[in-house]
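residues and backbone:
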Amino acid sequence: MSQNALLEPAPVVEKRTLDGASPLVPPAEEELVSLDGILDTEKLKADLDAIAQKYRDGECSEPRPKVLERLKIAVTEGRNAVQELLFADNLGTLCARRLAALQDALIRTIHDFALAHVFADSELTTDERIAVLAVGGYGRGTLAPGSDIDLLFLMPSKNSAIGEKIAEYLLYFLWDLGFTVGHASRTVDECIALAKDDFTIRTSILERWLIVGQADVAAELDRRFDREVVQGTSREFIAAKLAERDQRHSKSGNTRYLVEPNVKEGKGGLRDLNTLFWIAKYHYRVDTSEALVKAGVFSRREQALFTKAEDFLWAVRCHMHFEMGKAEERLSFDLQPTIAERLGYNIHPGLQAVERFMKHYFLIAKDVGDLTRIFCAALEEEEAKEAPGLRGFVRSLRNRAKSIAGTLDFHVDNNRINIVSRDVFKRDPVNIIRIFRLAAMHDLEYHPDALKLIRRSLRLLNKDLRENPQANSLFLDVLTDRKNPALHLRRMNEVGVLGRFVPEFGKIVAMMQFNMYHHYTVDEHLLRSVAELSRIERGELGDELPLSTEIVPKLRDRRLLYVALFLHDIAKGRPEDHSIAGARVARELCPRFGLDSRETELVAWLVEDHLVMSMTAQQRDLADRKTIIDFAERVRTLERLKLLAVVTVCDIRAVGPGVWNGWKGQLLRTLYLETEPTLSGGFTQTSREERLIAARRRLAGRLSEWNEEDRDAYLELHYPNYFLTVPIDEQVADAEFIRRAGDNQPLATEVTTDAFRQVTRIKVLAPDHPRLVSQLAGACAGAKANIADSQIFTLTDGRALDVMTISRAFENEEDEMRRARRICENIEKLLRGETIMSRLIGQSRGTRRADLFEVKPKITVDNSLSNRVTVIEVEGLDRTGLLADITGAISDLSLDIRSAHISTYGEKIIDAFYVTDLIGAKVTSEAKIARIERRLQSVLESAEGEVSSVNAMPSQSAFGFHYK
């Protein structure tokens, strides 16, 4: 027997198996993974043999480059063929298995070539025969195009020098082919010892596949791993995997509804399915979805749901990797339209193709979450029942089934609500809603058996049940629960009850809005807004939200707030305005929930006008009396003002991390307190003058370490609106900044970073002049910084305080601070006349994902919003330098900006500028208004932007920015 025969490779096995059983794949795909049309292994082997023969014949001096070139061609052609097949059938799991089979064939080919031509003269003893195993995800028989290749070189002994050389030869070829390879060379003894101590290694070895080499060595690992590592250790393995899952979910925000999800690691992604697979394989000793059905873990329907979810997620992941040419796991806004197109999604009335795709994605993620949660809960329950010894006996006594007062259909089982019989819902369909009410009343979680039966009983949620007064009363009780309504609504949503009981809600389940402002799907946003209200009502946010915390307990009917928040975005995704359509939905649903006609109309108004207060607070000048009067006329009653204020706060806070801040809270409080006396006939608990005095006194108290003269002088620097609109902590920080700058320093800057909110704040103290905003915005544009918010206040000494919030660009703190300092340098150069705008911005122009989003430009010039000035509202797609262009254009039009209100909603800007002509009058000329509209329209439509025609340092103006 030749030395080659001693390590005779296994024949090309084109059906991937795990311990002799087919892997968890859709039944239709449990067939041979053919390499036909992907890779001709015989031809590849013949070509490599021919290269080796030419070397032996002296026709080429170095065969390796030619071998590498031929292998690269094989890799490229093979992967292109797999991608074409994916386009043809969109079967994700099959694509991943094809890539794994292709990788197997390549590794076998390199291994065989090494034995036949590189190590042909080596005498391989029994102790030098190695086995090459795929482990990790590759060991499961699936690969994404950009996946790492995880290999285990299994050595019969530590002294296999030739084996190590073969492994090294194989690795270098794989690296030169562009693969990222994770590898280890170990004996069976080492594998067992490491697997006992390290769950990561244990999990990796759990999923293994013999690619090529000594089968006896691999078989020995199989026997010993099962006997010495797996047996009797299920409980500790399950606990480790569940803890690992929870930690991973926590890192991703603990929600599966992020609008830029991580397909691999995110909640509801492939890793959750992996976790389920690892536990199933380890605990139940199964390798197939069919076996999970036999074990009673899944029903046939749930098995089909599992395999469907796995196939979809693999399709998305493979398309992402192919498109990007690397292992990209985050389904970003940039990728979503492309992947939607690759998967064949089309536009639908009210929804873009990308929104339809993402809705499907989140529905799948929801299914993954439901299945893995049910599976893991069942395991936890099993573990509780099997606890050994006295501890287990005591636990069983403590957690044995307990009755629930008022019902014979449910009981408490291990601190979870459970059913007493399989016909509970069939006998009385109202029980499908009642179980959630009882769980909320008694602060219980849900037993997996109950959840599975609910899912299997969804057909009972018909028109009769939806119109049943008792069912609707129970649902309203869940929605308005005083402990944790969001938890129980979320469970209702996860098992499919919420969308069936409220079909209008079902239409927005898993619906995303393709913009950069909303962080969650619509249904998740609604449930989070309800959660925010519940936290306010429980008094958890008293320090952060004092006004809302004061309002809620005094409301005549708290239910209206919960219903309004549950419905406020329920009409998203329709061709018409969602607020108007939502009010119509509210008028249909509220009577069903048991609200009377007055309550119904009040909820409908809140839904229709739920954006009015936030838009007024952020986009209007609250120091302009006309703003307050117009808002009061829209609200009409004090009761509606209170309700709207709370709805607005909860809505903004539920948009996503970092969207809410103290500045927005202060603006809303100011608008509320300015409007309250108008609606109450002049009566208010605290007048504006009293609030101003209290605000000044509060700041003076925080500056107690200053000497009295300096403190009094500083308090006179600010106009009243500053004290009423800026949070006290920021007032103190501003005071210290201005004090450090001193009276004799005309220009000062300061930088602070906020890694949690992913923003950086830049404070600027500078002489006030008409083009200050344009100059500051241009300085940011020169560093490609996006301004998310800007607050500008004129001081009584002629200086202006500007606080700009820019989106963070770097994870590293030093890099972010370096960029911020460059912006400060830009500001100083511009304001000192050391450079001009065109030179600074010229090399920094660029769009901000402009090819992904479409925002129709809109210019409104309005003389009805203020009695003293003209208001120009600009709405359009954000880009680098846009604010500099807009404010520069306004100045070029000989207009003086009295107040600017900069609002950014993801990729969309809505900016309002309160302006006058140069003599301080409103702009009333129709010709001048038309000229303003044309000029600003051209600015918004210019992708590359424009630079103001006036670049020199302007002269100081008597008029400044009263307030952003």
Remarks:
- The CA atoms of residues 131 and 213 lie 4 Å apart.
- Residues 1-31, 387-395, 846-850, 947-964 have pLDDT under 50 and may be disordered.
